[in-house]
Design a protein that fits this description.
mainly alpha; 4 helices; 0% strand; globular
Length: 132
Amino acid sequence: MRWLMTAAALALAAAPNLGVAQQDLGEVEYQTACAVCHGESALGNGPLAALLKINVPGLTGLAKANGGVFPVMETLQKIDGRSPLQAHGGPMPVWGDRYTASAEALGGPFAAETVARGRLLSLVYYLESIQE
């Protein structure tokens, strides 16, 4: 799994030079990291959802639940999970730490945060694109 996250980080770092759309990279991130719980279609019905003790939310109605406006910063903070507010409440992985740790091997701690932010933003832009 670590090699897959490293490969995704490399792809994100190279994306501007390759002409790869950020949304496409976000979809790769989603399918790699999120679909197992939230489902391939982001409806909250991934293969692990039934095994969890919490209800896994669908992610296609975030804008609708926010008055028709996609909550970019709130979504970013929840996925990142490194804010002191513990936005996830615990059950969701802290992806900011995971992305940063996997990127440190690529260029050290200074580059790691940039790569992590790129991966997080790509994922958020993808989620914005699949809103109902």
